[in-house]
Write a structure and sequence with these properties.
The chain has about 400 residues and is α/β, with parallel strands linked by helices. It folds into two domains: about 230 residues, 3-Layer(aba) Sandwich (Rossmann fold); about 160 residues, 3-Layer(aba) Sandwich (Rossmann fold), CATH 3.40.50. The chain contains 16 helices and 13 strands. Helix 12 links the parallel strand 11 and strand 12. The longest helix has 18 residues. The mean pLDDT is about 95.
């Protein structure tokens, strides 16, 4: 019988109610602990909400990108050591320092506890400090949900040459992540599409990348007995970036509101430009932005919609897609990245960035109750067959043991 493992799960930020990193950390750590393993989660701000079992070890950053005060300048007394000074200087220079500075702090925390862990699992950080983990004699496994190179390409393509120069500094950490990915050891990703992108953009041999799909908590995300709200469309966006395709969705909804009573609920924090676009399209009360919902309220919202939509221009997996399917909500999504792989026959597909086609698909689905029911049934069946957190944890533990025994390509 295999003995329990002592696992250090690292996440440079773990926003609990939106974005994949915090959701992944919460559910994976719970299921690892349920299997009998000792799990400690090392995270910077925002900290995750953990269930009973795993332990949270806070690795404080300066929290320079907090929602209520982004790009803040820290007070002099907040600067505790050289990683804090580095974090501040990099932010002032227009870079995004958190993956690097978290990796330095996490390495320091692990170095102070020799012999306490059997394996270290880095969740999407890929900072240079992770290269020091292997020098401590600890096996390292790294999750890359998708390479940020994709975000970078799409984001910079939307900008002027001056904007590309400015935003390019923000994405400077991507080069570091590629270098670390090539030397850190075995990698975990969530789909074949993400694996292809990692191998192409980070120049990683395919045999080093192992696929373990994400799961969904079907105790929380499930169909509800209450009637669905007529005309309600829900979308979930972890970040208001070009990658998520929100501008195209707003244009599609603007076409629909001229002919029918529909209302779009966007779960996420909109940028000022997105609010301005909604006002310019005269959407007014036809669109609502909400964020920071408690889990039960968030799940109930997803189950209340007549239709869910994922307008992304790329997804390495898409947890919201699985959450929508588990909620029994029929789904319209794009043919981008891993979305066809994740949703299979449980969605209507449109071209990314085409508001006309998206409006037509939403119109058709809103008008066809039988089609909505068919897609909902397919989604529920697909979730039951493929996406369960206990299976994700078991597959991840198998990779941990293979890494510990030296049986994975590095």
């Amino acid at each position: 019988m295999n003995s329990p493992l002592r696992i250090a799960l690292l996440s440079y930020r773990s926003k609990p109610h939106s974005g994949g990193q915090g959701v992944y950390v919460r559910h994976l750590s719970r299921e690892l602990a349920a299997l009998g393993h000792h799990v400690e989660v090392f995270s910077g701000q925002p900290y995750p909400e953990l269930d009973d079992g795993p332990l949270l070890r806070q690795v404080p950053s300066l929290d320079l990108y907090r929602d209520d005060d982004p790009f803040r300048t820290p007070r002099r007394e907040e600067i505790r050591d050289w990683p804090d000074a580095l974090e501040t200087a990099m932010m002032w220079a227009g870079a995004f320092p958190e993956p690097l500075t978290f990796s330095i702090r996490a390495l320091r925390a692990l170095r102070a506890r020799p012999g306490d862990f059997d394996v270290v699992h880095d969740n999407q950080g890929l900072g240079y400090g992770m290269l020091g983990v292997r020098r401590l004699g600890l096996p390292l496994v790294t999750s890359i949900h998708h390479p940020i190179t994709v975000d970078k390409r799409l984001d910079l393509a939307e900008r002027s040459w001056l904007g590309r120069l400015d935003k390019g500094r923000w994405y400077g950490f991507v080069r570091m992540q590629g270098r670390v990915a090539r030397h850190a050891g075995p990698l975990i990703t969530v789909s074949e599409a993400a694996k292809l992108d990692i191998c192409r953009d980070f120049l990683v041999p395919p045999e080093r990348v192992h696929i373990v799909p994400l799961g969904v908590d079907t105790r929380l995300f499930r169909p509800r007995p209450q009637p669905r709200v007529s005309g309600r469309i829900v979308t979930v966006t972890s970040a208001d970036s070009p990658l998520k395709g929100l501008p195209g969705l707003l244009r599609a909804v603007a076409k629909l509101v001229t002919e029918r009573d529909v209302h779009l609920v966007v779960v996420g924090s909109p940028a000022a430009a997105t609010r301005a676009q909604a006002a310019q399209l005269s959407l007014g009360e036809r669109v609502t932005f909400t964020s920071g919902l408690p889990d039960e309220q968030y799940a109930a919202l997803l189950a209340s919609a007549e239709v869910a939509v994922i307008p992304s221009r790329y997804e390495g997996f898409s947890l919201p897609a699985v959450e929508h399917m588990a909620s029994g909500t029929p789904l319209v999504t794009t043919r981008a990245g891993a979305l066809p792989e994740v949703t299979g026959d449980a969605a209507l597909f449109v071209a990314p960035g085409d508001p006309e086609e998206l409006a037509a698909a939403l119109r058709m689905l809103l008008d066809d109750a039988a089609r909505r029911e068919t897609l909902a049934e397919r989604g529920l069946r697909r979730v039951g067959e493929r996406f369960a957190w206990p299976a994700v944890a078991a597959a991840t533990v198998a990779l941990y043991r293979a890494a510990i025994n030296g049986n994975l390509a590095c």
